[in-house]
Amino acid sequence: MSRRTGRTATVIALGSAQTLAWASSYYLPAMLAQPMARSLGLSAPDIFATFSVALIVSALIGPRAGRLIDQHGGRPVLAGTSLLFAAGLALMAGSTSFTGVLLAWVVMGIAMGSGLYEAAFATIVRLHRMESRHMITGITLIAGFASTVGWPLSAWVSAQWGWREACWTWAALHVMVGLPLNLSLPRAETGQELIAATADVKDEPAIAEPGLAPVLALSFVFATTWFTSTAMAAHFPRLLQGFGIGVAGAVGIAALIGPSQVAARLFEFGFLRRVHPLLSARLATLTHPLGALGLLILGAPAGIAFGVLHGAGNGVLTIAKGTLPLVLFGAQGYGHRQGMLMLPARIAQAFAPWLFGIALDRWQGQALWLTTALGLLAFGTLMAVGQLQKKPLQQQQAALNQTSPTLPPPQRQRSKTKQ
Questions:
Q1: Which of 2, 175, 246, 409 has the highest local Cβ count within 10 Å?
Q2: Residue 26 pLDDT > 50, yes or no?
């Protein structure tokens, strides 16, 4: 098997496994919360509260899972999460009380903290180090269809047989599909093999240990953008109705978010692949505020533009979560650093539906000023990151041009001349 073919197979396996993981965890409550609540004599907010607990657990688990991937590679960690996802879903299927659901989501939180995007990105970086950027994009392109697959399948199985059977179905898929996919991943070098492998990477830039300021800045950007993303995921149709858009229209506009995410990732993979990911991240932080300002000023006629711009920015920012820490801080210790960077984001994500719901109750559509301000703050913070790391950014871009596996030699030489 050629090197290119092997990398493609790895991206397809990880992307498919991530589609399953996201569809059966993050996107599960939207379809099953109501039937679960009715069956167990609970309220839907009770179910979402247990989901929030899972997000907090995942935030706390993330750094430890990242360190394990740094040490042993992603194959054993991700294979283990397939079993954890299956166990959590089986517990959920058998739960008869709030305590049972809470326990199931705690197990799911452990799986989410060690088996979603951050772990997949760390797995790729552990295998391919600074050449991982476009593979990270490829994973998000495939897994971008998680909601497209997850929501209809969960809803259909639940309507035909019940929510417990839907949970059992997802549990079985993790064992029969997710586990083999994760076990098919290449083994990472360990010990002396890793030392020899990294010593052979002549084009990899030597990036100094990051200072505290850029690390905190990037963590803040991820926390604010994930707050907005999760708030919109929970309240998007209700938000649009506050601007006079009907239920059907709001649902139709919400349906544009997924395709917009995938289209933006394709754009990043093609047109923006030769620019520093900091530039694409800056552009992505502006799309939500631009769409929101259009909606706040123009009202309902700007609804479609808002949905498309929000989805596009969210799609690129998902990639930035993986690529920015890589090119700014390097591949060494990537998994643990990624877990630490995303810890505030996971906590912000856990509280976003509740806090933005309060804002909607008080201010209706004007609550959009909150997420607009957060987006502008994220943009300003990324501009500051560029100033903090100005010289390293130039070195990183040159290294990216040199290590790109798709850049032909003549263009590579021209890139060196430009630098």
A1: 175
A2: yes
| Cβ(357)–Cβ(371) below 8 Å | no
- The CA distance from 65 to 68, in Å, is 5
pLDDT in tens, 322-338: 888 888 888 888 888 88
Q: Please determine whether the domains at 9-191 and 212-406 fall in the same fold group of CATH.
A: yes
Query: At CB < 8 A and 24+ separation, what contacts does 242-250 make?
Result: 242/360, 242/364, 242/365, 243/295, 243/299, 243/300, 243/303, 243/365, 244/299, 244/300, 245/300, 245/303, 249/303, 250/303
- Phi then psi dihedrals of residue 27, to 5 deg: -95, 5
Say how far apart CA 105 and CA 98 lie, in whole Å: 11
d(CA 73, CA 197): 14
pLDDT of 408 higher than 50: no
Domain edges within the chain? 9-191, 212-406
Per-residue pLDDT for 153 more than 60?
yes
Is 207 in contact with 221 (CB distance < 8 Å)? no
pLDDT band at residue 220, thresholds of 50, 70 and 90? very high
One CATH from 3.30.1030.10, 3.30.70.100, 3.50.30.10, 1.20.1250.20 for 9-191: 1.20.1250.20
Greater model confidence, 211 or 123: 123
Compute the mean pLDDT over every residue in the chain, rounded to the nearest whole number: 84
Per-residue pLDDT, 96: 94
Could you tell me the fold of the domain covering 212-406?
A: Growth Hormone; Chain: A; (1.20.1250)
